[in-house]
Design goal:
The complex is a heterotrimer of chains A (83), B (161) and C (859). Chain A is mainly beta. Helix content of chain A is 11%, strand content 36%. Chain A has one helix spanning 37-45, and strands spanning 4-7, 11-14, 19-23, 53-59, 67-73, 79-81. In chain A, the strands form two sheets. In chain A, strands 3-4-5-6 form a four-stranded antiparallel beta sheet, with no helix packed on it. Chain B is α+β, with helices and mostly antiparallel strands and 161 residues long. Chain B has two domains: 9-73, Alpha-Beta Plaits (2-Layer Sandwich), CATH 3.30.70; 74-151, Gyrase A, domain 2, CATH 3.30.1360.120. The relative contact order of chain B is 0.23. Chain C folds into seven domains: 3-91, 2Fe-2S iron-sulphur cluster binding domain, sarcosine oxidase, alpha subunit, N-terminal domain (Ubiquitin-like (UB roll), Roll); 142-247, FAD/NAD(P)-binding domain (3-Layer(bba) Sandwich); 250-363, FAD/NAD(P)-binding domain (3-Layer(bba) Sandwich); 394-469, BFD-like [2Fe-2S]-binding domain (Arc Repressor Mutant, subunit A, Orthogonal Bundle), CATH 1.10.10.1100; 485-537 and 628-725, Probable tRNA modification gtpase trme, domain 1 (Gyrase A, domain 2, 2-Layer Sandwich), CATH 3.30.1360.120; 538-626, Aminomethyltransferase beta-barrel domains (Alpha-Beta Plaits); 769-859, Beta Barrel (Elongation Factor Tu (Ef-tu), domain 3). In chain C, strands 8, 9, 10, 11, 12, 13 and 24 form a seven-stranded mixed beta sheet that branches. The chains are: A mainly beta (83), B alpha+beta (161), C alpha+beta (859). Chains in contact: A-B, A-C, B-C. The interface between B and C is medium-sized, with 33 and 36 residues.
Chain lengths: 83, 161, 859
């Protein structure tokens, strides 16, 4: 309840209204033809898991039901809008 | 004093690009922006067919590929009114309902995803129809000490149906 | 006369009494027995900080009697002590303390292991603060949300002043105090001032004052949950002011926990506010100006002064003729068995013993800083005594009495723990459990940091331990406020199912009929005649827009472009790792785009999945979630067409609605999208219709179905029917890492497509040896193993049965098994062993046990 997520549509809402998809993989969601299988493996399975600002995807399941991207500091939980 | 009543509304959901929805003028009904690419047109239940047709014709004229769906059946709407209505809402949700910034209030009410429209006289709470019963039960339970009364169903324009 | 019930006797209650004061006036001196040694404990702080007066009030344990108002008819009892709290056999434990040094439970009672259950039972009886009353009904509370600019925690002078100042600046205020305003102060100038400020604040607008409301913690947000008897108040302020004040320092000397030893404020309050003298003959040990105020209150209450120990500076301000002054002295021991009988005072000239029945100690303050230390300084500030510097407590002697009152940790224990190598506050806390009791270190935290700092100097090892919520003990029922029965999603036919006597079961968040009566009857109706099932829970989506086809083509592993309007295609949904997480139908609508279904369990998540990819690919596609908007009823059975024809004038023969196709048809006056599907292996029509018309459609089908003995079927029948066709249920027959190949559904992933979600993963996995596979097996019967039965081959466990049933139409058992492959194959014979102890011999079978050509569903 306490961690508040800034939804661009609905405003500041408690994190319990969202699904967190976690860290955005470096290559985003593009289906690139040039992706060798190894890069694809890394994109699907590996995350950097930094101690510090992390770009994340959140889905406002109890509200507008749209995705948002934000930067959250994993040490302080401080949130900045946008990637 | 607290009264709870079913609200009968038509919901026509329009899905199109954000810029298109920004500039489009709905031909009739009450518009609420659910998301950048989703706009609801609300009206009385009695005008369901006309509203759907009018909205569809109007939007398709500017955005041929737009998706227009009659979402009326997907939502259960309840109307909460009376002097204790604001307090009752404070028991059910942490949505900041006194905020007046033009945004549709969307978030969890009584534990279910909800959209809340404030008017001068009431709170209109829309929840997915499979949990319409839950909202009613929770309101009656959480506000039992306020002796809520069940009113007869109301139409979206305020008429008692 | 108002009275409360204390352990069977009536105790009078006077106006303004707390439970503690009423009991004390009636002569109660031992209020509790300590946690480990069952030492007698009496009233001490009278401010709700120490654990000594925790009683069971009206069945609720751990109620701090000194801050709980006494009411007529309350039932009060002390939780521990046998045969009685006053004379407790458990007090013998003190004499066995050399057998129970600090951390003894880490070193003893390890062997023989078999004795542990008994030892545990004994320990549970001996320790703790009493049993929970099982017959007490929990109180159901609600939550109440408050928004405010500033939340002030603590209604003392500092808190009230801060609230007024903030209100002057135009901020909206919520102020909460865990008691009533002014109640912790003895009558005097401070109390008068507090009440004045309270009046002024209460008259302002935009101010909410909560009394008897305890702040649970300061969470990020900020969010301050405040527990009170009426609600769990959830306060969401912009900033928080912590004004929780300070508690008087808990002194360390031998016998410091005896009944009869009081802190100054507590004694003054008992004498001044409740008008009961805490004792007859008092030794007073003070150190500050405030001490003198408390001393004065006690003197006026008529307590005889046997000794007044003060620092020289303060001592000089008093008249030695009126006060038996002892300058620069120190109390080193309080003597007595179950109450104070004398104290030992040490001065430069030596030690002397003074007989007394009351020792009042007032040595300065310790901030109640827990809430302040929990919180993010970005939006929390402190004011008043909670942030004033109060000096460091003196270094205690090795034998200096009780260190942590809550957990019965003595100073010797802390010194021993240090000697054993636990040389930081965090380690000492965990090893001795000091500061881990109900007061969470309010009385002893500073002693702990001081103890370490005296040995290490200011260092990380001497840092204050992490403060965490709750700051005060909180009831579980407070935390449960607003939480009720589990959320139940219902279809529009819910009442119909109940009316037909259905047994409802949970599938995810939905309630669905498991059966209406006899499962075999329902099954036979589907196989032989006709039957209906409520499948409204299916996920349903409208996909439209210029890029709709491209979107689905990239998302699904099947070909989408080739689905002609009016046709449907069954497809799996894969995630990026190539694993199956959902399945459903894609129905092409022509220019209007697509109508897509997914499993009931995945209905909600699908929206997130669709929208994320649409955004990632920047496609112009519009997604409408119509899961709740449409209901769906599956009409299935060899005579289904007859029933359908009876309800519509439109053609419904095999050419009008062929298998794997869909049409818009009006059935019984309801506009439906009819999907020909084949999940149960018979001629089936899935009727998707506006939700509000479900009941009308259901009733019409039941009525028309009378011509052929139609009855509805539930989930249990469904599980059997689809298993006979070898059809998987995602989540039942799939594990998180099921690829299409593992499921024997290679055809579902079209590797000839340039790309789709999961394609690279499948390509990569295709180069590896497949480790497990979903394989159909048959069992001769009678009977069949249960779901989950272990599968053995050559004596080795190689997997389990994901689904297993006895098939009536085939006359033998059938199952799907997830088994390990060895040498590139799966065994042709297996043994299945379920919990019933039976073993079943199985042989490998074809996927579709029943009607493998699919003749019946294509009829």
């Amino acid at each position: 309840m306490a961690l508040m997520i800034p939804c661009p549509t609905c405003g500041l809402r408690p994190y319990t209204e969202f699904w967190c998809a976690g860290e955005l993989p470096e290559h985003g969601g593009e289906a690139s033809e040039a992706d060798p299988l190894e890069t694809d493996f890394q994109r699907v399975w590996l995350r950097r898991n930094v101690a510090g600002p992390q770009v994340e995807r959140w889905f406002h399941a109890a509200g507008c039901r749209r995705w948002l991207t934000l930067t959250r500091d994993t040490l302080t939980n401080g949130i900045h809008d946008g990637a | 004093m607290l009264e709870l009543a079913l609200l009968e509304a038509t919901i026509v959901a329009c899905y199109a690009g954000a810029e298109a929805l920004d500039s489009w003028k709905p031909p009739r009904g009450h518009a609420e922006r659910v998301a950048g690419d989703e706009l609801w047109i609300l009206g009385p239940r009695s005008e369901r067919c006309e509203l759907l047709r009018a909205v569809e014709d109007s939007l398709r004229a500017v955005v041929p590929g737009a998706l227009v769906i009659d979402q009326t059946d997907g939502w259960a709407a309840w109307r909460l009114s009376g002097t204790d209505a604001a307090h009752a809402m404070a028991r059910l949700t942490i949505l900041r309902l006194d905020r007046q910034d033009g945004r549709l209030h969307q978030g969890a009410v009584a534990g279910v995803p909800a959209k809340v429209i404030l008017t001068e006289s009431d709170y209109r709470v829309f929840v997915p129809s499979p949990v319409g019963h839950h909202l009613r039960d929770r309101i009656l339970e959480a506000c039992g000490d306020l002796a809520p009364t069940m009113g007869s169903p109301r139409g979206f324009d305020g008429s008692v149906g | 006369m108002t009275a409360l019930d204390f352990e069977g006797r009536q105790v009078p209650v006077e106006p303004g009494d707390s439970v503690a004061s009423a009991l004390f006036r009636a002569g109660v001196r031992v209020f509790s027995r300590s946690f480990k040694y069952r030492r007698p404990r009496g009233l001490y702080c009278l401010t709700g900080d120490c654990p000594n007066c925790q009683l069971v009030v009206d069945g609720e344990p751990a109620v701090r009697a000194c801050v709980t108002p006494a009411r007529a008819g309350q039932r009060v009892e002390r939780p521990t002590g046998w045969p009685s709290p006053d004379r407790d056999v458990g007090s013998l434990l003190w004499h066995l303390r050399s057998l129970m040094p600090v951390g003894f439970y880490y070193k003893t009672m390890l062997r023989p292991r078999a004795l542990w259950p008994m030892a545990e039972r004994v320990i549970r009886r001996l320790s703790g603060v009493g049993p929970v009353a099982r017959d007490r009904q929990p109180v159901r509370r609600e939550r109440l949300t408050h928004y405010a600019d500033c939340c002030v925690i603590g209604g003392g002078i500092a808190g009230l002043a801060a609230a007024l100042a903030a209100s002057d600046r135009g901020e909206s205020i919520l102020l909460a105090d865990e008691g009533t305003i002014g109640e912790k102060l003895a009558p005097g100038p401070a109390r008068t001032r507090a009440l004045e400020l309270h009046d002024a604040l209460a008259r302002r607008t935009g101010v909410t004052i909560l009394e008897r409301a305890t702040a649970v913690g300061v969470y990020e947000g900020p969010l301050v949950p405040i527990a009170a008897d009426d609600f769990l108040h959830l306060v969401l302020p912009k900033r928080v002011v912590v004004a929780t004040g300070a508690v008087e320092r808990h002194p360390l000397f031998v016998g410091n926990d005896l009944p009869g030893v009081w802190l100054g404020r507590g004694a003054a309050r008992m004498a001044g506010a409740h008008r009961v003298a805490p004792g007859r003959e008092m030794v007073f040990w003070g150190a500050t100006e405030e001490s003198l105020e408390s001393l004065e209150v006690l003197r006026r209450a008529g307590v005889v002064l046997k000794g007044v120990v003060l620092p020289v500076g303060l001592a000089r301000t008093l008249n030695p003729a009126e006060y038996p002054l002892i300058a620069d002295g120190e109390i080193i021991e309080a003597r007595g068995r179950s109450r104070v009988r004398s104290v030992i005072v040490r001065t430069t000239s030596g030690e002397s013993e003074i007989a007394c029945d009351l020792l009042v100690v007032s040595l300065g303050l310790e901030a109640r800083s827990s809430l302040l230390r929990q919180a993010n300084p970005a939006f929390v500030t402190g004011t008043g005594d909670v942030v004033e510097p109060h000096g460091v407590p003196p270094e205690p002697r090795r034998e200096a009495g009780c260190f942590c009152l809550c957990e019965d940790v003595f100073t010797k224990d802390v010194a021993d723990a240090w000697g054993e190598g636990f040389q930081s506050t965090e380690l000492l806390k965990r090893y001795t459990t000091a500061t881990m009791g109900p007061c969470q270190g309010a009385m002893c935290h500073r002693h702990l940091t001081g103890f370490v700092e005296a040995r290490t100097g200011p260092a990380p090892a001497s840092r204050a331990t992490t403060a965490r919520p709750p700051a005060r003990p909180i009831r579980l029922e407070d935390l449960a406020a607003g939480a009720r029965y589990p959320l139940e999603y219902r279809t529009a036919l819910h009442d119909r199912h109940l009316g037909l006597g259905a047994t409802m079961e949970w599938t995810g968040v939905w309630k669905r009929p498991e059966r209406y009566g006899d499962v075999l009857e329902e099954y036979r109706a589907v196989r032989e005649r006709a039957s209906i099932m409520d499948v409204s829970t299916l996920g349903k989506y409208r996909i439209a827009g210029p890029d709709a086809t491209e979107f689905l083509e990239r998302l699904y592993p099947c070909h989408v472009k080739t689905i002609a309007p009016g046709r449907s295609r069954y497809s799996l949904l894969l995630n990026e790792a190539g694993y199956v997480f959902d399945d459903g139908l894609i129905c092409a609508l022509g220019p209007q785009g697509y109508y897509v279904t997914v499993t009931s369990g995945g209905a909600d998540q699908a929206e997130g999945w669709f929208r994320d990819w649409a955004e990632a690919w920047s496609l112009e596609v519009h997604i409408g979630n119509v899961t709740a908007t449409y209901g769906a009823i599956n009409l299935a059975g060899p005579r289904a067409r007859e029933v359908l024809a009876a309800l519509t004038s439109e053609p419904v023969d095999n050419t009008a609605i062929p298998y794997n196709q869909h049409r818009e048809v009006t059935i019984a006056g309801v506009k439906c999208r009819v999907l020909r599907v084949g999940f149960v292996g018979e001629l089936s029509y899935e009727l998707h219709h506006p939700r509000l018309e479900s009941e009308a459609l259901w009733d019409a089908l039941l009525e028309a179905g009378k011509l052929c003995g139609l009855v509805p079927h539930g989930l249990e029948a469904l599980r059997l029917l689809r298993l006979e066709k070898g059809h998987i249920i995602v989540g039942q027959d799939t594990d998180f890492d099921a690829t299409p190949a593992k499921l024997g559904l290679d055809w579902a992933a079209r590797m000839d497509k340039r790309e789709f979600v999961g394609r690279s993963a499948l390509e990569r996995l295709g180069r590896l040896e497949r480790d497990r596979e979903l394989v159909p097996y048959r069992f001769p019967g009678p009977g069949a193993p249960l779901d989950g039965a272990q599968v053995l081959a050559d004596g080795e466990r190689i997997g389990y049965l994901t689904s297993s049933r006895f098939s009536p139409v085939l006359g033998h058992g059938i199952a799907l098994a997830l088994v390990k492959r060895t040498n590139g194959t799966v065994p042709s014979t297996i043994l299945a062993e379920d919990g019933s102890g039976q073993r079943f011999e199985g042989t490998r079978a074809q996927g579709a046990f029943y009607d493998p050509e699919g003749v019946r569903l294509r009829a």
